[in-house]
Amino acid sequence: MVTHCLKCRAPLAPHAGPGRPASYCGSACRRLAEYEIRRIDRRLADYTLKLREAQADCEPFGIDTDHLGRTKRQRVADLRKWIREDEQRLRDLLCGAPADG
Length: 101
Prior knowledge:
It is built from 2 helices and no strands. It is mostly helical.
């Protein structure tokens, strides 16, 4: 059971009575969480597309660098890391998974 707001981490009042227990402390946090969920979802779609493009690229790892000087291997590793981080944040916002930090 969630004991704190999934967005701002404020403590929630104990649930009494019928219905689903609250996950957010109020409508402001619920709206902010909805906005963040949509933003992360769009970002994940973009990262996934970029990852697929990088993996399908015919250039061998390590030869091509981007405008930041990263190799293809580094770009793929960064994309995978960002996808993992965004998926974890979605879990935190939707399910109340414990925060990593």
